[in-house]
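The instructor's notes for this session suggest beginning with a concrete chain rather than abstract definitions. Hand out the sequence below and ask the class to guess, before any prediction is shown, which regions might be ordered.
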Amino acid sequence: MKRSPMMLRLWQRERGYSDTDAGAHFGVTRQTWLRWKGGAVPGPAHMIELFRDGVAQPNDFYDLPELVAPRKAA
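After discussion, reveal the predicted structure:
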């Protein structure tokens, strides 16, 4: 399950930002911010900024299976 919408909403709420303010923080429009909160994947440059600001990690934007390291047989 994608974690990005939850992470973006939490970050926004913690700072008391409106959708317009949150978008402006990352140099995008309110509509783009809303798309990200809806699960759209930002481009590489914006994804880096989201990561640097501690908002979300790139893997948060993708439905990836839980990875478990295989056990070696004894």
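Then share the key points. Helices lie at 4-15, 19-25, 30-37, 44-52. The chain has a mean pLDDT of 90.
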